[in-house]
């Protein structure tokens, strides 16, 4: 099995592309503007591409190598850390970044506004999990 046909890599890439594509579609519907191309690469918003990618990988590993395997245990831990980080760490730092931007605007200090990276809400992560399970399962059965 080479990298091009690896179901593990296919699941990750497909989950990421589908999740980012859905972010774009949701932004177009929300803003009624098809020029929301930034959603194709920015973090945050619905659904979580991070969650979709790691859960798609965990699903393929579990189905191919067994849910009791050491490899699944490692991937499960990796997925849990990524999703915890998305909700608890990146979301918090993003909210702090927005607060700092507001303080800079209010104080009228002449500095470049820092970028505030956006994390995820629990609902965005949950949708990413569901998407990851679906995509991981489809990839597993399509490459079996």
SSE order and pairing:
Blueprint: H1 7-31, H2 49-65, H3 70-107, H4 122-142
What this model shows, in words?
This protein has 144 residues and is mainly α. The protein has one domain (7-142). The chain contains four helices and no strands. Helix 1 (7-31) packs antiparallel against helix 2 and helix 2 (49-65) runs parallel beside helix 4. The longest helix has 38 residues, at 70-107.
Entry keywords:
144 residues, mainly alpha, 4 helices
What's the quick description here?
With 144 residues, this protein is mainly alpha-helical.
Query: What would you call the quaternary organization?
Result: single chain
Globular, elongated, flat, extended or rod-shaped: what is the shape? elongated
DSSP E strands, number: 0
- Strand content of the residues, in percent? under 5%
Write the element-wise H/E pattern from the N-terminal end onward: HHHH
Mean pLDDT: 88
Figure out the total of helices. 4
Number of domains: 1
- Note the gap between the termini: 12 Å
